[in-house]
Amino acid sequence: xxxxxxxxxxxxxxxxxxxxxxxxxxxxxxxxxxxxxxxxxxxxxxxxxxxxxxxxxxxxxxxxxxxxxxxxxxxxxxxxxxxxxxxxxxxxxxxxxxxxxxxxxxxxxxxxxxxxxxxxxxxxxxxxxxxxxxxxxx
Length: 138
Known about the structure:
Layout: E1 8-14, H1 17-26, E2 30-32, E3 40-44, E4 49-55, H2 56-59, E5 77-81, H3 85-97, E6 101-102, E7 107-108, E8 112-118, E9 124-130, H4 132-137
Parallel strand pairs: 1-4, 5-9
Antiparallel strand pairs: 2-3, 3-4, 6-8, 7-8, 8-9
């Protein structure tokens, strides 16, 4: 039997929780108030995907490792799907307008389109649109 999970909770350290909430709110995300306090918030990506934004000192209580310096290294690439190329552009442009920074240039493979940015804490986010009908024909 294959191992499967119903939900995913990505935990990311942030320097300033209020600024991070403002940033992701500008991108259109909502937060679960039940799991929000001065140390953390639960960003709702979908019914089954959540990103826990944890103030760095609180994040450190969950690990004995150093927090990655996102200016020098990558700890993760959070890749999320989009419904269209236009939605990819819209979300990344919102991120850049809200204070995020460019990561990689747009990549258009015809059947797959991606673009990425770094959030205000330097975490790498990538949005992907995939034309599943083109993949099925391939």
